[in-house]
Amino acid sequence: MTGLIGAGGYPERRRHGWRLHLAILLAYALLALLLTWPTVSQFSSHLPGDGGDDPAIAWNLWWVKHALLTLQTQPLISDYLFYPIGINLAFYTLTVLNALVALPITLNLGVVPASNLHTWFAMVVGGYGTFLLARQELSRRSRAASWAAALSGIFYAFASSQLFYLSLGQFNIASSHWLPYVVLFVMRTRSSPALRYPALAALFLVLQAWSEMTYASFLLVFIALYLAYESIRALLSWIGDQAKRSGNLIATCLQPAVRCSLRYALLIGLFLIGISPLLVAMYPDLRDEGDFWVQGSGFAETFSADLLGFLVPTMRHPLFGSWVSHTGISAFDKGQHLYLGLTLLALAVAGLVKRRRDLGRTGFWLIAGLLFAWLSLGPRLHLNGWDTGLPGPFVLLQSLPFFKGNRYPSRYSVLLVLTLAMLAAQGTHRLLEAWAERRRHAINTGGMLSGHHALGSQGLVACLLAAVFLFEHASLPLPQSDMRVPEPYSTLATAGQGTLLDIPIAWRNGFRITGPLHPGFMFGQFYQTVHMRPLLQGNTSRNPEFKFQYFTQAPVLNSLLALETGHRLPPERLEADRTLAADVLRFFDIRTIVVRPGPGDNPAVVPEATLPYIEALMPVERVFSNTALSMYRVDLPALPSHLEVSAQAPLARLYLGEGWGPLPTKQTGSSISQEPLLWAQQHHVRLLVPLQARIQVMSLRLYTPAVNQRLSVRVNSQWVASLPITLGWGEYALELPAEALRAGLNDLWLSFDQLQPVIWLPHPADSSWPVALVVCSAGEEVGDFGHIYLNGEDVSPNQRGYNVAAIGPQGELQVASFDTHLQKDASTALAAFIKAVPVGHVVAVAAADEASMNLSEQGAVALRAVGIAGDLRGKFRWSHAAIGVKGNPPGSALEALDELQPVCLAAGPAVTRPQVAAALAWIRFEGK
User: Which of 98, 426, 452, 803 is the Cys-Cys partner for 786 at CB 3.0 to 4.6 Å?
Assistant: First the structure.
């Protein structure tokens, strides 16, 4: 016995070490299977989740495989969603690494088994990484240390916050498994000069970024905190040495700090190289569309943890799940509720008590735990639902690029739990050593128990602690989503090419859903893994506004959206759609339509309401129908032999891709003239045109304000022509070769060398007007914005209710917003604002989200004082835009209201950027 067991009771023979690690991995694997029950019993057909995120996150595994192996393209850009404009998946939680790790399983067993296996893999790997980190922190090789480290892995991998993310189907957020390895090697980078440690830290940081980018930003915060802590600690140590003897600051403090900083610089440099494909993919959208990481506060207040929630079991607990509903905690159903548990907190406190004389690393874990707890509480601290008003450090991160992309403060819990796990490892180690010491004392005094039994009792205590922790954090049974694909979808995989119009249809990002608020459309995205056809809809995380508005404002699609969300179409809309429906289907190359009914208990989610519309207005034939879905085959008309793109073209909104100014809405009022032009606002603007695959003569009439302008044309990624454009108006023609074209939708890019400021453009006939004033409004269901662009700059507060801008003849500008939806005194404030505007000043008004509920007679009268005739009262969530003049009679303003779609008005050039390249009167395509 003495030859095998050291003083701490740990086997010293290295050849037995692998058994410990194998036992740890097997134990974590068994726990992963048990704690995600009943997933293992429905392994090939169900996923953990509530149907909200799990279909789309599982879709990731298929898309990465399909892009790399079938399409042989990089997966960060896709037009299989948001067809035909496509979506930049670098801004989406694509979980590329997860898909690559699971690829062999995906190829052999399918997406659902691969997703489930990867979920268990992530839990095991995350727990094991925490075990390794805790063993390093304990700095001991004893049996007690091994048990304590093993428990820390359980604390991290199987905490209720982690299980809650699985219950939501947020497998990306549950993918925090590489994080402990980053921390492990970051700390070794500090303590060792070996370059392999910063390289390994960078490697795992890159792995974490390609699994879930949010956690990469958290780790950068952790690294900054660790460096600051160690630097201050080193400085204080030098100061202490100075008090005892003469010391050299450079030799004892600065030189090691510089060498250490170089190692961390290497770490960050390697990390940036590792994520460079993501950065390269992001750059064009950020350059062209600006910063769209966060809209407003990003709902951070809603997605913050509550301080009381640290001590209340989550709603998923099988016995105590109802407790939280009896508290004042207002948001506890989307992973915001963080339960830490009494076991973890007690052991963490014991760890602090144990090392109170040697703060060192333990002090760092304490500070880190406090910081990440505070971050998880969000912009302001809430206690039992009460907003204390106390600000938190999260508000600082909200102002920083990259870091502000995380709008869920509660997600910082991943590092909070890790820090507590490290402290708890110290407390567990202390408890187990004390227990063993007492048992040894009993043996020495009573002689009744063998040393083996005394030492083995540590395992019993550790297992008891694990059982108590797991009971506290239990989330059984996890909700399950049925991922079985309806059989009719399978027939589409071999029934020819074309796009699928899958209803319910919706577009979703991290801030909003355009379409029915029901997960049916998310399952429609998952069903693409079987039928493999492009879809118009899609789910993403961040995107430019245009990606939603392209579809929201598209004819026929806008009507389908209205119908499936419980609205009725006026007769004039139905007649207009009747003339356009076949051409719209041909534009999108929609060969099949599938309609799946809604839940039946929500009048705002009625996809089946589109059925009469489809059958009456579209060239379709029903080929399948049951209670689960109806499927139609579409008889598409032939491609046109000639095509004109202009502001007056019926399908103009479909032809215009990225880079163009808005198309003004048909409006009332006659005081301002408007040019029917299409403005190119970027160096590169996109056209989507359905053409025959033969030589096309492209002729265009355009205006450019630039001298020595040059136009280049790219068709389907092939440059085909370049020609000089003279100042002012001109007509030009060129040929598009047949080999560059394809039968159907073609992707054309017009590229201009120069941009000119909007203020250089000629003034309208009435020089008292600004050069360019554009007002765009969208109710909550169709965009949720209220923009006011003055010479291409958005001056609107863009808040809920009415946004107002008053513009004087010398460019004087006053802006304000009035929440006439919820604030009862908003109409009074609106009236006071307009009353103060001098007579003759231009007033622009844009409603955002909802502006009718508290719009009073006083507010309506004030709006009439600037020439507005429309009254939004009784028009819930309508869009309303107007441009008027203070003192002009009602009805004189340029004005548009609409219940079902956004509205946009323009006085002067219709531009929403401060620079423009050209204005297009028309562009024509004639086949030869």
Answer: 803
